[in-house]
Each structure stands twice: as C-alpha cells, then as structure tokens.
Amino acid sequence: MENLLEIRDLHVHFTTYAGVVQAVRGVNLSLARGEAVALVGESGCGKSITAQSIMRLLPSPQGKIVKGTINFAGQNLVKKSEREMEKIRGNEIGMIFQDPMTSLNPTMTTGNQIMEVLRRHSRMTRQEMTARAVEMLRLAGIHQPERRLRQYPYEFSGGMRQRVMIAMALACGPRLLIADEPTTALDVTIQAQIMELMQDLRQKLGTAVILITHDLAVVAGFARRVMVMYAGKIVESGTARELFRSPLHPYTRGLLGSVPRINDRARQPLTPIAGRPPDLLNPPPGCAFWPRCSEAMQVCARQEPAMVEAASGHSAACWLLHPQAQNRRRVG
Amino acid sequence: MTKYLLRRLVAMLIALWLIITLTFIIMHVVPGGPFATEKPLPPEILKNIMAHYHMNEPLWRQYTDYLGSLLHGDLGPSFKYQDRTVNGIIRDGFPVSAALGAVAIAIALLIGIPAGIVSALRRNSWQDYLAMALTTIGFSVPSFILAGLLMYVFAYRLGWLPPAMWGSPQQAIMPALALSALPMAFVARLMRSSMLEVLQQDYMRTARAKGLPERLVVWRHAVRNAITPVVTYLGPLVAGIFTGSFVVENIFAIPGLGRYYVMSITDRDYTVILGVTIFYSAFLMLMNFLVDLAYVFIDPRVKLAGRKEV
Q1: Could you say which of A250, B31, B112, B202 would form a disulfide bridge with B187 (CB–CB 3.0 to 4.6 Å)?
Q2: Domain with A269 in it: what CATH number?
Q3: B205–A88: do the CB atoms touch at under 8 Å?
Q4: Where in this chain does the record put each ABC transporter domain (chain A) (predicted)?
Q5: Which pTM was predicted?
Q6: Which ipTM value was assigned to this complex?
Q7: pLDDT tens, A5-14?
Q8: Domain count of chain A?
C-alpha cells in the first residue's frame, strides 16, 4: 500500500541577519496509514521545522523549503498554493503544540474554537457541529463536555487544555496528526495521561501520528518506529525496540546514555554528550556529529556517511557501519 | 455584581467630594475674584454684589451652602454672565462639545485602528513607516497649528469649507479633524504595538493550523485580542474630548463647553469653575466605569469583582 506521507530530501533554509541557517538538510521520512512514528532529537535539530514544513507553516518570510518533496496522500504539499494548503490544514492534517497554556485563544470559548475548524471544513449545521464538539471533548476525556464547551481556556488546567487541543486537531477526522512536543510543558503524571489518550485515539480513529519530542521516555510506549535527528538530518531510524536495545549511531547511544534509569543499581552517573551541536550557518563537511563523537575516524570529518540498513528496518548514517570500519574495530 | 456596582458608586462619590473640596480651596487661594476689575468698583456697589452672591459670608459657610445646593442639582448662577446659570451653560455647551467630540473620536478610531492593524501586519514595510511617521506628526503638531493650517488650506485657499462657527455638518469637519489628530495617532500606535504582541502568540499558530484563511486569523483571533488597550484609552479620551478642547473651540468660534471652562478660570467665575470641574470629573469617572464594564464583554477572564485571573 502506498504510504500516507513520504518526505524526500527535504531542505529548509532560514534567512537570518547572521546568514542562511540550514535548518533541515535532506530529511527522508515515510509514514504508513495509521502508523505512529517518533521524531527525536535535541533542541534545534530541525524536528519542529520538519513538522512545520509538512503543514507549510514555516515562519514567513524567513523560513523556506528550498528542495525536496513532501508527498501526502499522493499530492506534493511543497507545490500547493496557500489556499490549497488551507483546505488541508486542520482537515486532513491536524497539529497540536508544545504549550497548551498559550495555544488556545483566551477570548473564545473552547466550543467555538473547536467548532471553528468544523465550520471551515465541513457543511455541518450548527447543531451537528455542537454535537461533534461534544463528542470530541468526550473522546478527549473531558467530563461534562456540554458545560465545558461554553467555558473559556482560562477555566481549564494545562492538561485539560491539551485535551481540548487534541479534540480540536482531530475534530475533522484528519488522516495525520502532528504532535509537536505535546507533553513538554506538562507535569510528568499529566504527560503520561496525554500520551495514553493519544495512543487510545490513534487506535480508535486510525489517525497516523508523527510525535516530535526530545523526551525518549515519552517515545518508548507510543511509537513503533523512531527516527533520531541531528543537525537537520535523520541519523538513525528503526523500530523503538531495536533502537533502544541496540542503537547503531553513537549519537543515539549518547542520547540513551544521558537518560536517567530508575532501576540502575550501580548508580552510574549520567553520561552527557560533550560539546555542542554544530553551527548550521556553516555546517561542517562530513558527519555533523564527528566533533562530539568518541569513536570518530578520519573519514568522518571528510565525507558524509550515507544511511545504511544494518538490520531489517534499522538503519543509521554512520561510518562505523561500513564493512571496513567493522574490520578496523575488530582489529583494533 | 450589585455589590460591585454599589462599591464603585460609593468610591466615585468620595472621589467627587474630594475634587469639589480641593477645587474650592485652590480656587479661593488664588488671588483675585470674580469682581476684580481694572477700574475698582465703588465699595458700596462691590459690597452689594458680594452680598447678592453670598460672598460676604465666611468661606466654610459658602462651602456648605454650595454642597447643599449641589445636592439639589443646582450649580448656582454664573458671576460673569449675568442672567445665566451654570446648569444653563453646561446644558448649552455640552451638546455642542459632545457632537464635535463624537465626530472627532469616530475619525480617530475609524482611521487609527485600521492604520495600526495594517502597520502591524506589514511591519517594516513602507506602509508601516509612512503610518508611523504620520503618527509622530499627529503627536507633535499642536491642535491650534493644525487648525490654522486646515483653515488656511480648506477655507482660505480652496474655499471648500466654512472657516468657522457652528451649525452645519461642513462646519464640523475642520474642528473635528484638528481635534482627532492626536487621539488618532495614539490609537494607531497603541493598536500597532498591541497587534504585534498578539501576532506573536501561540494561538495565532493554532488558528493557522486549523486551516483558517489569513483574513479570519487576523480578524477573529488577532484584532479581538489586540483591541483591549484601545478600549482602555477610550474612557479618558471620550471624557476629555466630549467636554471640549478650549483651543479648537476657540479658534473655530464654537460655543462648546471647553471655551467656558478656560474662560471661567481667568474670570475667576467661581461657580462656573466648580460646576464644570464637577461635571467633567463625573463624566470622566462614568466613562472609566463604562470601560471597565466593556472589558467583561471583550475579555472573558475579567470578572466584575475587579480581579483578573490568568
């Protein structure tokens, strides 16, 4: 079956006073219908920019897709006009954001904010829209939805607001939901509830989800497939199970090593990744990670590694996977 | 709600009483009096006049008498204009000032708000620079210069508009323009900065992610949230403009309240000073009160108990 979303060689540039920032440098990503993938990486690695590119909501006029295609259900979104994109946003692709406290309009009732998206994309009557809004709020786990509909965002807690955002994003039954750090601004217990809700709704409604996060703990139970991004590129991709058990890329190993473990009896200190991400104004030649990589070789600084499939469905862009490197390591 | 209204009413009455008392004291501290003329009046006549207006009585007596008649809504007779009462002066002058003011405010809002919105949406474009340059002029050119300029161009040179007086709609155009320049500039700036702030908000991104066309994003989500500071400014603005601008009314020979107000001070026309001050203060307080009520409709977070939850 054809993939729902197919991103090929996406490049996004930002024009700033300091120069052109190459925020996304050749991202490839595919997503099947109803599938959940996670896009993981530290701040500034380009994961949110990738999401904004899919929605074509890059900050204008600074951000621009300079190369690549985004194929969504057989149509290239990069080529769509603004008007055509308006019909897709909120209708076929829903999006929720990091900070639910500020992502809702404070002067509009939650009901009106949900119904606004229905009014835009459907031919429902007012009664039907109200019924749908009630249904969505109930699905999102909000009690007394009829009453909550008439309330304003300030009458909701952070977790509840994120539920409203989810209800709003899914109101038109989109085929894809992009969740850009949906739990980052929430308490840990609320985080778990929101992730559970998203998992539940994904299964009920069959919506494909791209989860963007820097929190590996959030990913684990949610996405079957995980992609790790670094400096505007995907450096490793595989099933969550494979990737957590046997990470291929040194960066992924570094990320996993800097996560605290609750059952760590040896009480090993966390190992941070030394150094900083590269300056994307002038990305270095070769592998973007080599200056921070403890296993770097000469070739890493000179030439960029290609994505190599090391095991079925598990690939990474790292010279260590090259047959010669394997030999070298074995020898050394 | 009722409790809140009552509390506001009591607060307003106390403020009004303080204003009356202070004005009364300051007025009498300033040297001179309503009957001080260049050529001194014969003592007998002066004494008769003083007695007629009860000015021979001790000040505290005059004060309590004044408060007493004020409670009956009587602001007393004018000292300067014989046969005219302060109530009459306000009754005649206020509608004129209010009509002129209403036109001026309408112009200020109808031009200022859209100008601010466009400036914010096209930040750093030539439209923005032009609008902001004009607001600087609006701020810094005094209304009497603008009034003179308008008169020169439209009445003297082009002859399109009558130069002065009051009565026909054409006669309202120039004074209203002169009066509206400053609030228009202020409203445009206020609206621009407030829009710029709202446009940065996360919920603007949410609105776009819903697939709303930019027009709806701006009108329904941005303008509605950005207009609050303009409403705040509207209270004192309405009171200030309605009660008249002395300068503009004077230049265009408009029989509004502002003219009487300033003239009464130079004339030491005690009752007019007090009466118009009271009227002006009460009006200002009423306007501020109405603005506070208007918040409830604009911003659902505002509750009438006077506290704001965020």
Answers
A1: B112
A2: 3.40.50.300
A3: no
A4: 7-256
A5: 0.79
A6: 0.86
A7: 999 999 999 9
A8: 1
